[in-house]
Amino acid sequence: MGILHTATFTLAITGASDEQLDAAAAAFTCALHRAGLAPGDAIAAWRRMDEWERLEFAPAADPGPGWRATMTSARDAVLAALRAAGIEGERRPFVIEAAGPAQNR
């Protein structure tokens, strides 16, 4: 699995070259910035989705319209990243996660 560590997130795509990872990271960040978001916003929204799923999508735990807008932008950013890497539609496993403390040194 190809892995790219940035200051704020780690991107991993199975079988990706360094060039594909660079293109994906740039497109992901750019798409989020155009939406007024940062990678951390997308990662926080994904985590909130996981929490809501654990609650079996209980209506009382619905994260609300702001979260939905962030999730839409995060999804669009992931699609832009996969397109930029040239692997859209290939169903390759990928991961985008917050950078760990050791990576931020």
What structural keywords apply?
3-stranded antiparallel beta sheet; globular; 3 helices; alpha+beta; 50% helix; 105 residues
Largest sheet: 3 strands, antiparallel
Euclidean distance between termini CA atoms: 23 Å
- Strand elements, count: 3
Shape call: globular
Summing up helix and strand content along with how strands pair, one would put the structural category as alpha+beta
List the secondary-structure elements in sequence, H or E. Answer: EEHHHE
Which regions contain 5 or more consecutive residues with pLDDT less than 50? none
Q: What's the Cα radius of gyration?
A: 14 Å
Helix content: 40-55%
Number of domains: 1
The largest beta-sheet arranges its strands as 1-2-3
Number of helical elements: 3
In round numbers, the mean pLDDT is 92
**Beta-strand proportion:** 5-15%
Q: What do you see in this structure?
A:
- With 105 residues, the chain is α+β, with helices and mostly antiparallel strands.
- The protein has one domain.
- The chain is built from 3 helices and 3 strands.
- A 3-stranded antiparallel sheet has the order 1-2-3, covered by helices on one side.
- Strand 1 (2-5) and strand 2 form a beta hairpin.
- Helix 1 packs antiparallel against helix 3 (65-84).
- The chain is globular, with a radius of gyration of 14 Å.
- The relative contact order is 0.24.
- The mean pLDDT is 92.
Layout of helices and strands:
Layout: E1 2-5, E2 9-13, H1 18-34, H2 39-54, H3 65-84, E3 94-98
Helix pairs in contact: 1-3, 2-3
